[in-house]
Amino acid sequence: MSDVVRSAVVHVLVLIVCLAFVLAPMTMVLTPDKHCRFLWNDKPSPKLCGFKIMTGHDCPGCGMTRCFVCMAHGNVIEAIHFHPWGAAAYVLLLSQIPYRIWALIRLRRGLPDWYFPYWTQCFCIFLGLYFVQWFIRLYYGA
User: Fold this and answer.
1) Percent of the chain that is helix, strand, coil (3-state, to 5)
2) Strand 28-30 and strand 36-38: pairing?
């Protein structure tokens, strides 16, 4: 497989994942008791967090679905309340959509693929801050 094809496959896969994570929350709303439900169903979605079910404590991602639903509907302040780093993650995923489309257009035109050399460092910093906020929330019981 050539490097161009490999790059195109990666861009397409990332684009599909980002579209799913950005568009799926648009099909959901929050109930008055702050549970997520799909627009076509009156029942709240089931709680799927195995970590919380087993330990009774929030996992690092608890609140992320509600955060994404709020972000998809433009409620940024409420989204940050549910998960402080979720709003940033949503914006990051949202920004990947035009970037990946443009990268695919560049590859199709025979132009070189873009390379962001600090992606791994940025991801590690984001992941570290993600867990720091989780430890703070666990410690203070937020």
Assistant:
1) 65, 5, 30
2) antiparallel
- The position carrying tokens 């590859």 is 107
Specify burial of residue 35 (Cβ count, 10 A radius: 0-12, 13-18, 19+). middle
DSSP line for 96-141:
HHHHHHHHHHHHHTTPPPP--TTHHHHHHHHHHHHHHHHHHHHHHT
Reported as a pLDDT band with limits 50, 70 and 90, residue 133 is confident
117-121's contacts with Cβ under 8 Å and 24+ in sequence apart are: none
pLDDT tens sequence across 52-92: 778 887 888 888 889 999 999 999 999 999 988 899 899 98
What whole-number distance in Å separates Cα of residue 43 and Cα of residue 29? 11
